[in-house]
Structure to design on (277 residues):
């Protein structure tokens, strides 16, 4: 074989080996995430019976508007929620935006979620991301090419941040906020407070609604992995859509209210939501 042929064969072999390694990395990471989802599904329990007018009767007026606008009356609290998203994300105000697609699975009893992100898409994932609150623990994992850890964090701060994220994303299954582990209290005519409990921990946030009962913003104190401190966190809502007979947010963003200025770090559109009871 000529020298050029030897070089070409070596390059081909290298490409094949690298491809096999990358595919194996994706498979291992995806398999681990699938295992987390299976654990979530196995532990999910049914919630109490359907929401009624009597359920809402003692709530503060803005909370009643919110749940009525969402359309939860007459519907049960779902046991499992599956959601698909697309959007973009960045790590800082100076960083470039990166497209993403994501799938998320929730259980409502006990509170849990597993979020799997494909950056920039399912078809061409440069990185795989996983954020979860599962078995009362929170963690974040991002791997470049399914192999190289870009982020790998867990601990008490991530546990609290995960429970807060669950409380926030209950906007896509609002009946769960009427379960036995949530307490709703009055604030003023345009907002109400929700305190969610799980395994001795709590998350507390302000739900801000308009005159028709649409959720327009969510505000809380949450751990920021970038600043390593508790910061004000908001998730302003954009559009609304009908999902399985419920009027729910379809677009929105997440914003850190920092001393240096607001940082919008993710913008999302909800592609689909399905419920299992």
């Amino acid at each position: 074989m000529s020298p050029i042929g030897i070089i070409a064969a070596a390059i081909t072999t290298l490409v094949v080996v690298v491809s096999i390694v990358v595919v194996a990395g994706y498979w291992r990471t995806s398999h681990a995430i699938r295992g987390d989802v299976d654990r979530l599904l196995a532990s999910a329990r049914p919630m109490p019976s359907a929401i009624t007018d009597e359920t809402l009767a003692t709530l503060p007026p803005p909370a009643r508007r919110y749940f009525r606008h969402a359309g939860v009356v007459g519907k049960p609290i779902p046991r499992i929620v599956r959601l698909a998203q697309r959007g973009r994300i960045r790590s800082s105000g100076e960083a470039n935006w990166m497209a993403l697609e994501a799938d998320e699975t929730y259980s409502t009893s006990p509170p849990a979620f597993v979020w799997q992100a494909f950056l920039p898409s399912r078809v061409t994932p440069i990185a795989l991301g996983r954020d979860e609150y599962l078995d009362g623990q929170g963690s974040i994992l991002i791997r470049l090419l399914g192999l190289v850890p870009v982020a790998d964090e867990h601990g008490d701060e991530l546990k609290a941040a995960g429970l807060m994220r669950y409380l926030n994303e209950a906007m896509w299954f609002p009946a769960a906020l009427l379960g036995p582990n949530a307490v709703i209290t009055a604030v003023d005519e345009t907002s109400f407070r929700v305190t969610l409990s799980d395994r001795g921990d709590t998350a507390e946030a302000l739900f801000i609604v308009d005159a028709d009962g649409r959720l327009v913003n969510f505000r809380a104190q949450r751990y920021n992995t970038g600043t390593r401190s508790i910061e004000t966190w908001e998730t302003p809502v954009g559009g609304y859509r009908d999902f399985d007979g419920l009027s729910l947010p379809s677009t929105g963003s997440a914003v850190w209210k920092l001393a240096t200025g607001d940082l919008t770090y993710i913008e999302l559109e909800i592609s689909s939501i399905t419920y299992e009871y």
Remarks:
- The longest helix spans residues 3-43.
- The CA atoms of residues 59 and 178 lie 10 Å apart.
